[in-house]
Amino acid sequence: MSKKFLVTIFLVSIAFNLAFIGTFAYLHFFRLREDRMPPAFHQNMPANFRKKLFVNRKILRPVHEDFLDAKFEFLQSLFTKDFDHAISQEKLDITIEKQTLMERKMGELLIKARERMTPEEIKRMIEHKRLNKNRGKLRRRR
Asked: How many other CB atoms sit within 10 Å of the CB of residue 124?
């Protein structure tokens, strides 16, 4: 093979490698960063509603941590060497109970928050939900 042909193949190889690395960098550092940004609503949220939201997070944190602990125990029971179906089923039932409790608590807090909202806050919340209805869903790969 001639030197010119080898140099051409080498340059094509470098171009493909740079394209691969560039695609990885774009997806990892730029495109995914958009998903990590907080929703625009938090910047436009009324200050009193923001305070209520953070108070609710303090109330929900222990319930959420209980659920995560139960979920972790369930997953651990699945991967033990001496797997027992009955124990795993029991841990699954506990996990589902804690998840139901957490979701019920979240719903109750949302109802309380809704009762305290002004008509203007309700309009802003509805507009936010309309604008961000697809936020959080997995993006389809093209």
From this structure: 17
Q: Token pair of 84, please?
A: 């027992």
pLDDT tens profile 81-97 = 898 999 999 999 999 99
Q: Are 106 and 60 in contact (CB under 8 A)?
A: yes
31 has pLDDT over 80: no
Measured CA angle at 121 (ends 117, 123), to 5 deg: 120
Residues 6+ away with beta carbon under 8 Å from 1: none
CA distance 67 to 70: 5
DSSP string, 107-131: HHHHHHHHHH--HHHHHHHHHHHHH
Q: How far is CA 135 from CA 79, 117, 129, in A?
A: 34, 23, 9
Structure tokens at 16: 């493909």
Question: Domain extents for the chain?
Answer: 1-37, 39-142
Write down the mean pLDDT value for the chain: 79
